[in-house]
Design goal:
The chain has 323 residues and is mainly alpha-helical. It has helices at residues 9-25, 29-48, 59-71, 83-103, 127-136, 146-161, 166-170, 201-228, 256-266, 274-287, 292-298, 307-318, and strands at 177-178, 183-186, 195-198.
Length: 323
Amino acid sequence: MKGLPLQSAHYLYWLQSYEQWLQIIGYSESAIKNWPVHVRELLHFLESRHIHHISLIDNLHINQFIGHVKHRSNTMREGALSSSAINAIINSVNSFTGYLNTTGKFALDYTVERAEDDIKLPTVLSIQEIKQLYDATFLPHRNKSIALGQRDRAIIAIFYGCGLRKMEGTALNLDDIDLNKKLVFVRRGKGGKQRYVPIATKHADDIRSYITEGREWFLYEHYARDYNNKYAKRKQVPDDGAFFISQHGGRMTVFYKRLTHLKEKAGIEKQFGLHDLRHSIATHLLQSGMPIEEISRFLGHSSLDSTQIYTHLTNNLNHEPDG
């Protein structure tokens, strides 16, 4: 129900923060558009019962709201709401209470039962699972090269530690990395936007090792093979400027195989992809207490435009959970 008035500034703040969170974590356009509308209905319902603060909400209030939804009329046509419409509202309520729990500000230990064919939620790895993934980069490789492990740790640093999208990480060049200032320059962000992203110290160390050793190894291997067999057909054109170098000397564009390899080595059963590393760092930063506005800037939803922001974000990142 669109346009329902809210009197509580407290509710308005958390509704706006929730909507930002849906965008940050990567929910579908439909969820971003509709779920806040359903949450607004919940908060309007609570206000009508003189409950004006989230800390006062309990399971009984949620049950009362769901009962109200199941029996209220459909505003778009005659009759009651369909099962799918009710499920959409339930999804929204569960998502909102989950968001509040994630912030650590409020604990609403409650989940409304819903249908099995719900919207698929983004996968978020736990802090322990990120650590397992990281530890797996040190396990032996078949070709006994430490360069693979160094590149794997750089992948985790860029896509988890810095929260870059796949296209942003793929487009990275070596001169986009400034380890002295601990900044990554994203020149090809979503919508053509450019930004700087801070690098936590522990991730900067892994990036430095990859640049000085692992990356050089991949380039050397390519040129050595090319020199030893000048008639060999090149699978990729060498790209000395690319940050991520493939085993054939070109710009690395496929990360799925390496991620699958690490997942199996780490013994992680969850199904996840490269973009889920971005979801995970966003969730972990929120859990650590970083304001959602700063997480939004960090992930490229708006520009990082001052040294003060860089410094403050870097301080937060340096206190993020180990991974």
